[in-house]
Design goal:
Blueprint lengths: L8 E4 L5 E4 L7 E4 L2 H18 L16
Antiparallel strand pairs: 1-2, 2-3
């Protein structure tokens, strides 16, 4: 089995839920009441996304902040 590292971008919504998204995979996101619950949910959704994804996926470079 080949292992891949995926980065999860995490935000908290207006209801206090944690929402995560994997920029490397199209439409790969989930939510949870806690960070631990979110990460468990993300692991499951990443596996599902990988089953449906094409062979290639984009490379996550990083996050930049812009202040206006």
């Amino acid at each position: 089995m080949k292992y891949h590292d995926f980065f999860v971008v995490i935000e908290r919504d207006e209801d206090g839920m944690y929402v995560g998204e994997v920029p490397q995979l199209r439409a790969c996101y989930s939510q949870g009441r806690t960070i631990d619950e979110l990460m468990a949910n993300m692991r499951e959704v990443i596996e599902l996304c990988l089953e449906e994804a094409e062979e290639s996926h984009s490379e996550f470079i990083g996050v930049q902040r812009i202040t206006l």
